[in-house]
Amino acid sequence: MLRDEVVKYYYPGNGYDYSCSESMIRAINDYYDLNLPQEVLYASSCFSGGCWHDELCGGIASALSALGILYSVNGHAHDSDVMKKAAAELFRRVDEEFGTTRCVYLKRHNYVPGIKCEPLLVRIADYIEDIIRNNNIINK
């Protein structure tokens, strides 16, 4: 499951200790065999800590990047109805369960000393796995 890959990269005790955004993109890359260049993985690091401004959750931001990679048509966002639908569904699911997508509020209610925001990232990973499965692009 994608959630296991996220935990592998995120939990400090596993030797990686990546941020929320780095863990999410690395997990998606591994789980779906995307073979993304290191530069793409590095680019997602800027989404950490709510894009370093306590705004959009870094795990969500990296998941959205992955959806863009998977569903972009001709390299244009406006050409992909699937990508728009998938992104909207991710936001809807997070909002329904957690009430927000803003890092500052998500951390306030989901951060656990020792495991950080792991339970939240696991749920985001579950949503992404389900969204990808339901859009029949990659079967896992």
Strand and helix map with partners:
Blueprint: H1 2-10, H2 20-31, H3 38-43, H4 48-54, H5 58-71, H6 81-98, H7 103-110, H8 118-134
List keywords for this structure.
globular, 8 helices, 140 residues
Q: Spans of 5+ residues with little confidence (pLDDT < 50)?
A: none
- Main beta sheet: none
**Series of H and E elements:** HHHHHHHH
Task: Return Rg in Å.
Answer: 14 Å
Question: Which range does the strand content fall in?
Answer: under 5%
Structural class: mainly alpha
- Shape call: globular
Q: What is the average per-residue confidence, as pLDDT, rounded to a whole number?
A: 93
In helices, the fraction of residues equals 55-70%
**How widely separated are the two ends?**
8 Å
User: What is the strand tally?
Assistant: 0
- Counted up, domains total 1
Total helices: the number is 8
Can you walk me through this structure?
The protein is mainly α and 140 residues long. It has one domain. The chain has 8 helices and no strands. The protein has helices at residues 2-10, 20-31, 38-43, 48-54, 58-71, 81-98, 103-110, 118-134.
Brief summary:
The protein is mainly alpha-helical and 140 residues long. The chain has helices at residues 2-10, 20-31, 38-43, 48-54, 58-71, 81-98, 103-110, 118-134.
